[in-house]
């Protein structure tokens, strides 16, 4: 028997839930939890070579790549060093889930066009404040992502024969 009081969603909302469920930060949330983010998912369009954000910018929004390709770079001695390129279904700017953080990388559009859903940090924090399970699940995923980054740093250090001083990582 169907529950007449159960929340129902439109086909468009279901499509958004499927999209969100493929993004690591949202992968542990159910549709009802994801639905809280929908009113705050603003569509933004960018052109080729446009900057999405720069390293050290305040981290005030989460960017969910809908279409296009983005280059992630780091600036070293007045030049940009390419780290990787990412495509649709990736979250950028995850550090916005933490208070008072800055961007760690630069993000530039390399495809002809790119489309994002952008969720402002204030809206994310409002959802977190009223939904501790959502906050816990998303921060657990963020911790896993950061743990994987750390693991990759150690692997790179080992394979580069100590090309850089790893103790600098722990000095801040």
From TrEMBL:
<dbReference type="InterPro" id="IPR000595">
    <property type="entry name" value="cNMP-bd_dom"/>
</dbReference>
<feature type="domain" description="Cyclic nucleotide-binding">
    <location>
        <begin position="25"/>
        <end position="145"/>
    </location>
</feature>
<dbReference type="InterPro" id="IPR014710">
    <property type="entry name" value="RmlC-like_jellyroll"/>
</dbReference>
<dbReference type="Pfam" id="PF00027">
    <property type="entry name" value="cNMP_binding"/>
</dbReference>
<dbReference type="InterPro" id="IPR018490">
    <property type="entry name" value="cNMP-bd_dom_sf"/>
</dbReference>
<protein>
    <submittedName>
        <fullName>Cyclic nucleotide-binding domain-containing protein</fullName>
    </submittedName>
</protein>
């Amino acid at each position: 028997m169907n529950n007449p009081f159960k929340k129902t969603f439109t086909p468009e909302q279901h499509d958004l839930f499927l999209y969100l469920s493929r993004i690591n930060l949202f992968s542990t949330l159910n549709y009802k939890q994801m639905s809280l983010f929908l009113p705050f998912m603003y569509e933004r369009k960018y052109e080729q070579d446009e900057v999405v954000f720069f390293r050290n910018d305040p981290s005030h929004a989460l960017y969910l790549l809908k279409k296009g390709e983005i280059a992630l770079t780091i600036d070293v001695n007045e030049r940009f060093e390419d780290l990787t390129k990412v495509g649709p279904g990736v979250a950028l700017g995850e550090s916005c889930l933490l208070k008072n953080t800055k961007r760690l990388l630069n993000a530039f559009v390399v495809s002809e066009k790119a489309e994002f859903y952008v969720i402002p940090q204030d809206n994310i924090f409002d959802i977190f404040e009223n939904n501790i399970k959502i906050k816990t699940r998303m921060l657990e995923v963020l911790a896993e992502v950061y743990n994987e980054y750390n693991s990759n740093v150690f692997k790179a250090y080992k394979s580069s024969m100590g090309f850089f001083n790893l103790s600098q990582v722990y000095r801040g």
